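Troubleshooting log. The previous structure file for this entry was overwritten by mistake, so regenerating from the original sequence record. Sequence copied from the archived sheet and checked twice against the printout by T.R.
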Amino acid sequence: MTTTAEQLSATTLLRFATAGSVDDGKSTLVGRLLHDSKSVLADQLEAVEHASRSRGQEAPDLALLTDGLRAEREQGITIDVAYRYFATPRRRFILADTPGHVQYTRNMVTGASTAELAVVLVDARNGVVEQTRRHAAVAALLRVPHVVLAVNKMDLVDYAEPVFAAIAEEFTAYAASLGVPEITAIPISALAGDNVVEPSAHMDWYGGPTVLEHLETVPVSHDLTACHARFPVQYVIRPQTAEHPDYRGYAGQIAAGAFRVGEAVTVLPSGRTSTIAGIDALGESVDIAWAPQSVTLRLADDIDISRGDLIAPADDAPAVTQDVEATVCHVADQPLAVGQRVLLKHTTRTVKAIVKDIPSRLTLDDLSQHPAPGRLVANDIGRVVVRTAEPLALDAYADSRRTGSFLLIDPADGTTLTAGMAGASFAAADGPEAAADDTGWDF
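Regenerated output below.
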């Protein structure tokens, strides 16, 4: 007999984030998903019902399932990212419920940075507003491959098809212009449960999937073996015991791609080359290993390798540079200014750096560039040029979200200042990334 644990291990995992303007119903949608998919424990539902009654509400306020902070409940808004884990027989989910306020854009970036799908909510009465465009732009910047437009509160516009069609057409044109490869529009009522888990009886003109059905069936590629192979060294293993007197292994997690015994590799930033003499995984020698396995590589030559070095195939190694141009989202309360000294953390490598230039700040309302702002403040998204003290093997973020991202850190107290994405801002709408295929962008 198949156990629940065995069933879940056989299902795929989808990471997705919700976004949208204030009061568009994100938390209610999440609560409805959890409630109608039977993912809420009895004591959790009882607590929500009690809290709702104490506020004078007859029906349980499902938004309280995710709005856990006292300030969130008092103000009726989402302030921080709330992560929820649930599963159906078809797929497991990690959900990030992100805030809608402009001043919490950095929280949305945090929640969507690892997402494979973003659900952008729109109030059917208001249509596409400034914050809708802002969140679509952030999803495009972060290379989220699947975007769902959930047109919420259809019950308040009498479930009118023309209202939904107009909003879907406007949003789809905007998101496509940013290079988002796949956009799916679904009319819903999170409060009433229309098209969230169960199909709506009020919208027989809509023949597409419900939100949960789409989440369960959207193609998600976790096959990283076809990506550029990258292995950031985390730790050098030298037992120097009687049993292993000459053992030298380089331990870490494969960020992308696959490595094989006998393969020629390059160690960066030194540029030294060697071949893989052995791969140890879970205490056993294997011939091949792939992302995201944690393994130990053994090389045929004795090379000076330490934490932070990157091992890559000799014929597919990234370029090494000390000048990093990137799009960044500033997440700290203190500004980021030209001339500021920072630490740059990329995979397992942390180097000293200086902010050489801030060429522009992005105005997400209309995607215009504000030239030479001089500094970035909290929630700003802009272009920066950073000069590092040591060379970095950095991929473009469009090629790999794993090895194309980095953090800027305050060297004084270790505070994270900025999240960076190396390379160009948006994908070209008519470029190769825009051709929607089954794999979407590389993860």
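The helical segments are 4-10, 26-36, 42-54, 70-75, 105-112, 130-141, 161-177, 211-217. Archived copy saved in two places this time.
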